[in-house]
Amino acid sequence: MRYKFEPYLRQNEKYDKVVDSRLIMEAQIITFSYGNLFKNKRLSEDIVAQVNENWEDILQFWQAAVPQVYVNVFEKIFNDFLYRVPVHEIFDGI
After folding, report:
1. Residue-number span of the structural domain to which 31 is assigned
2. Distance CA 14, CA 11 (A)
3. 8 A C-beta contact, residue 50 and residue 31
4. 64: pLDDT confidence band, cut at 50, 70 and 90?
């Protein structure tokens, strides 16, 4: 995950905030493993085999939305922390 910060002053203290963040996810292979998914061992095995065979298509679909959810959640958590703690308390001497 990559963050871009922007400094600002509040009550004569220097703070930072995240103004841009990115997450790039790459996979060489993904393997799925599920137990008795449908209370039918044969059907579960067939579906897992299909999913594992088509992992690239699933990853492409997944990458369209899921990384942005992670980015939004971590950016919110990080900004909440940065709002409460001035830069000099995070990085001594800055």
Report:
1. 2-90
2. 8
3. no
4. confident
